[in-house]
Amino acid sequence: MTTRQFINLLQQHSNHELLFEYKSNQFAGTNYHLTEIKNVHFETVDCGGNTNEWNETQIQIWESPNEVNKTNFMTSEKFLSIIQKVNSIKSLSYDTEVKIEYGNDTFHTSVMKIKSFTEKNNQLIIQLFEEKTLCKAPSELPENENESSCCNTSSGCC
User: How far is CA 65 from CA 12, 33, 47, 51, 70, in A?
Assistant: First the structure.
């Protein structure tokens, strides 16, 4: 989902509570805050010597230990107002993929893609997923190797 599509989704559901589902039936707490928005530029070189370049928008959410007993989730409207404030200071890249950075005491910090969203009971639920690491240069693998064994110490790939 692009940053533009995400913003449009928030606008369409502005009066809804905004929930982030980071694992099946596990949600960021009602005490989450939007703490940072990042325009990120990547320049990479894989183990085959191929270069890659792309941009992302990363939105960081964090659970405040001082608000553990909070009963309501932030609304899409409030979340959107923070995005708009950030955009007035530092322009966002609307055509880049948006990802959500999140972690808590029981879930490692991760930058996750948006898998899908659902709407129910005046809530907008953003479902996230973690990507698996992939070998970016599968053509460099020996014939009897595959991506799952890429870059092991005996493969000769790396």
Answer: 30, 11, 41, 41, 10
User: Rounded distance, CA 95 to CA 84, Å?
Assistant: 16
Distance CA 45, CA 137 (A): 10
pTM above 0.85, yes or no: yes
Three-class SS state of 7: helix
Residue entry with tokens 């553990």: 68
Please list the rounded mean pLDDT of every run of 10 residues in the chain (158 residues): 98 97 97 98 93 97 95 98 98 97 96 97 96 80 58 55
The predicted structure's pLDDT at residue 64: 96
Query: How high is the pLDDT of residue 139?
Result: 72
Tokens of 21: 């589902």
- Token duo for residue 10: 């928030």
What's the CA gap between 7 and 84, in Å, rounded?
Answer: 9
**Reduced to 3 states, what is the DSSP secondary structure of residue 62?**
strand
Buried b (16+ CB within 10 A) or exposed e, 84-123: eebeeeeebbeebbbbbbbbeeeeeeebbebeebeeeeeb
- Residue 146 gets which letter from DSSP? -
* Domain boundaries along the sequence of the chain: 3-133
